[in-house]
Amino acid sequence: MLKILENKLLTLAKKYKNMVVLNADFSNSLGLKEFSRIFGERHFNFGLAENNAVAASAGFVVRGKIPVIVGFGNFLAGRSWEVIRDAICVNNLNVKLIGIGGATGDGEGAAFQSFEDISLMRVLPNMKVAVPSDSVELESALVVAMETFGPVYLRICVEDLPDVFESGISFEFGKAKEFFEVEEKYDLVVFSAGKMFGRAVSVANRLRAEGKSVQVLNVSSIKPLDTKKIKELAGKAERCLSLEDHSVFGGIGSALAEAGVQKLKIIGVPDIFGRSGNLADWERKFGLDEESVFAAAKEF
User: Are 180 and 214 in contact (CB under 8 A)?
Assistant: First the structure.
């Protein structure tokens, strides 16, 4: 995912001569090594000061630039929330924020694991929020983010994700897409995005092999939400389930409930902080590994 980010930023910088990239330290681990080498005059490292990077981005907009801010999700969305709100969103400035990590994407513990970034960003007026589900969709989402005026928050997983979509898929804000062939009725519809989408597809395939009618909807555009498509599928389903690597409060599941989805089970990070350690163990402990999700879906 980070390699796709790095390569696409290089391509976009050639197209958008007024694009600049800002970050708060960790250039190499955030996929910015090549960008800083090739476009050194358009890369600005603010050290461990996300607030300063976000505040400066407003000034870059005034000077006719398109700032892209890359940082760990917990620091970029959390530490800088007030500045994002007052400097960027209140004024509807054309700034792109890319939050790296997510809830289970870093073994460094609570400081780096961001369980809350989606809820923090989607509550802000004028902000668009997306969580690409694989590298194919990420590449498209980066292009669309640059073509779309106004504040955008993209959440990107640091881990290598299996590609679940065919090449050529196009991301659209406000559009959700079914993964399997459309049917009239479903035993279960799973709503997911980001790292957990591939896991949702795997679980769905196992349930389908047991004779269940299961659909998976990619809700990578979390704000704006494709409320029409979501309600349509929920109306066809006996049960609905959301799966995300984010807190069960304020993420995809909450957005679905706000949209009126009923008979809904929300699977995500419980009301806890993160821990350091092996990510596979961490996921098993909190029920986000494939076997735990499969068992929960069957029971539901």
Answer: yes
